Amino acid sequence: xxxxxxxxxxxxxxxxENADGAVLEQRSAAAGLLACQGVFETxxxxxxxxxxxxxxxxxxxxxxxxxxxxxxPYVSCPAGFEQVAAGMLEVxxxxxxxxxxxxxxxxxxxxxxxxxxxxxxEETQLIGLLGQLEGPGPHTLCLPGTHxxxxxxxxxxxxxxxxxxxxELYAVLSQHSLLGALMNRDADAQVDDEAAFGLGVATxxxxxxxxxxxxxxxxxxxxxxLSATQLPSYLSGLLVGHELQGLLATAxxxxxxxxxxxxxxxxxxxxxxxxxxxxxxxxxxxHGLHRLARAGKLIP
Length: 300
What we know:
The protein has helices spanning 33-36, 40-47, 81-86, 122-130, 166-176, 194-203, 210-222, 231-244, 260-272, 284-295; strands spanning 2-6, 11-16, 23-29, 56-60, 75-76, 89-91, 100-103, 107-109, 117-119, 139-143, 148-154, 157-164, 253-257, 276-280. By secondary structure, the chain is an alpha/beta fold. Strands 3-2-1-4-7-6 form a six-stranded mixed beta sheet, covered by helices on one side. The chain has a five-stranded mixed beta sheet with strand order 12-11-10-13-14, with helices on both faces. The protein has a three-stranded mixed beta sheet with strand order 5-8-9, with no helix packed on it. Helix 6 crosses helix 8 (231-244), helix 7 packs antiparallel against helix 8 (231-244) and helix 8 packs across helix 9 (260-272). The longest helix has 14 residues, at 231-244.
């Protein structure tokens, strides 16, 4: 089968062994949704050229959103393999004869008295990790990123999740606010300053709240307490630290899913809170789609 993670800015495809989901080949392209409006079928055909012996194509991510190829309704939490697989939508593609193409649904969570939540794409990474978790849980998982997702898995099902817009807020504040004026934003000068990051995490635990703490980015820069190259790491630690506040009252271990640079920072912040972290790579999407194909009886 072919598993595809098709997001807003990127396209990743994996050719998998049906029996165990092992990755045989993989491809990636800067062919995200923003660049493919109106030509999704054409782009898919181009990206799959040469992989003609694999009839099953299963996609996840923003390709199933309102701005994607076909909108696939969200599946409500709690949900496991079977519930998500049952929500997959089969689509037709005239330029891809002989292919069976499915798009996986996202997840929604609407807790009583709480705020509504949605995710698209991350659920396949969570599903890819389900078989590796020991015991019934509850397990706490975090997918750091532009919109970080925190999920709880219990008894083989994703029972709840919530979102923190940490990455997007960091980008806005560092690039489009007064806080970034004292920062060295040259990509070649960007460093992961552990001490400045740790100071940001520690500051997030002090009285005053986020709105007050944010101004300390500018004040500490003005007084020379932090250099222009340290301020980005300090802001990152401040925001990540606030993201963790109130989320870890009962968690003693957090599973982190994502790229090395981000998971390393979150692992460091969690350690400063006395929380153990276990890291997992982003390739879980392919494993998750393989599990969904099995649950939906699309492969033996």
